[in-house]
Amino acid sequence: MYRQLILFLYQLAKYMSLDQKGNIMAEYIWIDAHGATRSKSRTLKDQKWTPETLPTWNFDGSSTGQAPGENSDVYLKPVAVFADPIRLAPNILVLAECWDHDGTPNKFNYRHECAKLMEAHAVHEPWFGLEQEFTLLDLSDRPYGWPVNGFPAPQGEYYCGVGTGKVVQRDIIEAHYKACMYAGINISGTNAEVMPAQWEFQVGPCEGIAMGDHLWVARFLLYRISEEFGAKVSLHPKPIPGDWNGAGLHSNFSTKEMRVEGGMKHIESAIKKLEGRHQEHIAVYGEDNEKRLTGRHETGAIDTFTWGVANRGASIRIPREVGVKGYGYFEDRRPASNADPYRITGIIMETVFGSVEE
Ligand SMILES: *[C@@H]1O[C@H](CO)[C@@H](O)[C@H](O)[C@H]1NC(C)=O
Ligand SMILES: *[C@@H]1O[C@H](CO)[C@@H](O)[C@H](O)[C@H]1NC(C)=O
């Protein structure tokens, strides 16, 4: 047994350290019709690549639900480059936008619209911070470590828990944290969450369109690393019905004006604007969110808009220290864990600063 394992590790190490002869592997990553990441690899010369110099590529959109069978080519336009923590330097990760053959953005390309809004309102220097909650599942879709015919002890011991019986698969969380740093993602922390097998990582601060880019690549790495450890990742906002916490994507937001003295009036004016468009926001804040936003388990109810200082049951929370200082940022607690960060950050910008002329 051990002999085989050592032999296997030796073989793997040997191949992984082979000389690439002046070439690199570029992993092109995109988002499919169902909000999952997809990726494929190609060989490029080893040089300094930027989104502008990287080649456009394509894939069969009929196999990902992104195009009809006839005319199924979808184009991949590189938009961001990250170091590759899986294959290590000089190999790279390339995040790409999806475009149709007629030169228009693909139906599921939410980045394009978001980038226009960020660019148009860039003078306000929008900063975001997103908290990605998720659940690790075993191969039979049970939360990892849950008993096969029953439930673990009720919630209470698991949030920021330490020790066997409190948390599972910390190896994945640690590997993912380091991998994000290596890639150049602004990951700012991790912790175990309220429901057993539920975890969270935070990405931010990121300015403008970089928020969505960083979060999507962090999600890609979470799926990719969990694959190596034999775990599944669920972004479902209510993976287990009943008295178990759901999963969200709490979104911190501030502008240049909100971050300086007197900022509270800009925070309040933004919240008023959000209030007027609550239903439109909920519509793009993730699928199955009604199962999570029940007004219980530290959430607001889905059909009402509320806000307050230090209130975890509100749609929008102003952190206590922001209330005291009178400037800073606010937290939109409505988005579900499976929401698209481009849609969240995009509609916040559009609501606060207005839409962009074509
Ligand atoms: C968002 O704000 C909360 C406080 O309201 C803070 O604890 C958290 O670290 C912030 N998260 C990110 C990703 O910026
Ligand atoms: C990452 O965070 C730093 C501050 O910690 C900030 O200066 C930088 O702009 C952020 N990167 C992006 C791409 O937003």
UniProtKB/TrEMBL annotation:
EC class: ligase
Protein's UniProt keywords contain Cell membrane: no
GS catalytic domain span: 110-358
Protein name per Swiss-Prot or TrEMBL: Glutamine synthetase
Gene3D superfamilies noted in UniProt: Glutamine synthetase, N-terminal domain (3.10.20.70), Glutamine synthetase/guanido kinase, catalytic domain (3.30.590.10)
Species assigned in the record: Lasiosphaeris hirsuta
Family under the similarity heading: Belongs to the glutamine synthetase family.
Domain GS beta-grasp: 24-103
GO cellular component: cytoplasm
Molecular functions per Gene Ontology: ATP binding; glutamine synthetase activity
Organism domain of life: Eukaryota
GO process terms (BP): glutamine biosynthetic process
Keywords in alphabetical order: ATP-binding, Ligase, Nucleotide-binding
Reactions mediated catalytically: L-glutamate + NH4(+) + ATP = L-glutamine + ADP + phosphate + H(+)
Subunit annotation: Homooctamer.
InterPro entries (UniProt xref): Gln_synt_N, Gln_synt_N_sf, Gln_synth/guanido_kin_cat_dom, Gln_synth_cat_dom, Gln_synth_gly_rich_site, Gln_synth_N_conserv_site, Glutamine_Synthetase
EC numbers, comma separated: 6.3.1.2
Pfam families recorded: Gln-synt_C, Gln-synt_N
